[in-house]
Write a structure and sequence with these properties.
Elements lengths: L11 E6 L4 E8 L3 E9 L1 H5 L6 H23 L8 E7 L3 H18 L3 E5 H7 L11 E6 L4 E6 L6 E5 L5 H11 L7 H10 L21 H16 L6 H26 L4 E5 L6 H14 L2 E3 L10 H13 L16 H4 L5
Parallel strand pairs: 1-4, 4-5, 6-9, 9-10
Antiparallel strand pairs: 1-2, 2-3, 6-7, 7-8
């Protein structure tokens, strides 16, 4: 099925997101108006294990998905037959979790005879920004989440080029590991952010720049440096100084992220910088990026907190790109835990 649709016709996309530990269903009109966006978090469930347990996450998705599909449509104030298409996160993510969403969306697509749109999770994070502002191309996206740290260049709508990525830990993973080292439970990122903003002093920690012309990132060495500080202080019987370590860690991460993002904007002559992903909720990163973009005269777009973490509204926003171009999936849609963002790009007409 590949028919290019008239943008003047209203498009209602029911979107499903189950890539990790949030079950989310949304209805999005014309790729930017959120009519409903339901999220069932599993944080309390996984906190006992110190991280996400894939099998447990999948079972929770199964428990939640049917009721959430019904409630999202009801809350949007439309009927099932009013839907234009069904969208679902195809990848990347945990394969079992993805499968729950893919099976639910495929079944609904078949039952309603509505087009099916397989959607890329990171494209969703990027186009969450379109829920709050119009995007101008070319633009640059800084993606920061639990599993991804990337700089993505978009020359035109729906076309992605990853120019930089993490070579080891993603920034969200590094936050959680550092939080664990200084005694905080999962998820640790918010605890580190809070401590860093409250701290009056900072432990000096390295900045990892890699090659001078590289837009890649590396946080494994920084994480190891934090562990060394913690272990040395324990061996000497000294207090760990959690706040100072948190501030030193966050200052190192933020300086590298912000510096490379702004350098990429300048090098690629991007009109906007988009901040995307769960770590976009980090107040220290938002504050410093806003300050430097203001000084550099760069337009910065950051979605509100509810669209930073995993949610289905962002999937509906990204799926609209495929809807406009009539690029739909078949009922044999597969979950793809290692899905390439560049491969998902909208095909040129």
């Amino acid at each position: 099925m590949s028919e290019i649709h008239n943008e003047l016709e209203s498009c209602y996309i029911l979107a499903v997101e189950t890539s990790c530990d949030e079950t989310s269903v949304a209805v999005v009109k014309d790729g930017k108006e959120v009519l409903s966006n339901l999220i069932a978090s599993q944080v309390e469930t996984h906190k006992a294990f110190g991280g996400v347990v894939p099998e447990v996450a999948s079972r929770k998705h199964v428990e939640n998905i049917t009721l959430m599909l019904e409630e999202a449509v009801r809350k949007a104030g439309i009927g099932l037959n009013d839907l234009s298409a069904i969208a679902v996160t195809q990848g990347p993510g945990l394969v079992g979790a993805l499968l729950v969403g893919v099976v639910a969306a495929t079944s609904l697509s078949l039952a309603l005879n509505k087009p099916l749109i397989g959607t890329h999770h990171i494209a969703g994070h990027i186009y969450a920004n379109r829920l709050v502002a119009d995007l101008e191309y070319p633009c640059m996206a800084l993606v920061v989440s639990g599993g991804h740290t990337e700089l993505v260049y978009m020359k035109s709508e729906g076309n992605f080029e990853v120019i930089g990525r993490t070579r080891d830990d993603a920034v969200g993973e590094a936050y959680d590991k550092v939080a664990r080292a200084i005694g905080f439970p999962y998820p640790g990122g918010p605890h580190v952010d809070r401590l860093a903003l409250e701290a009056e002093e900072a432990v000096d920690l390295p900045r990892v720049w890699l090659e001078s012309d590289s837009y890649d990132f590396s946080f494994s060495g920084l994480k190891s440096a934090v562990l060394n500080v913690v272990n040395q202080r324990k061996m000497r019987g000294e207090p760990i100084l959690e706040s100072a370590i948190a501030r030193g860690f966050q200052e190192s991460v933020v300086e590298v992220l912000v510096t490379k993002a702004i350098r990429a904007v300048r090098a690629y002559e991007a009109k906007q910088l988009l901040l995307c992903g769960g770590v976009a909720a980090n107040r220290g990163l938002r504050k410093e990026l806003e300050r430097q973009c203001r000084e550099e005269g760069i337009e910065l777009i950051i979605p509100p907190f509810e669209y930073c973490t995993d949610n289905a509204a962002m999937i509906g926003a990204a799926a609209y790109l495929k809807w406009k171009n009539g690029q739909f999936a078949g009922l044999d849609l597969k979950a793809m835990p290692q899905f390439s963002l560049e491969a998902w790009s909208v095909q040129e007409s």
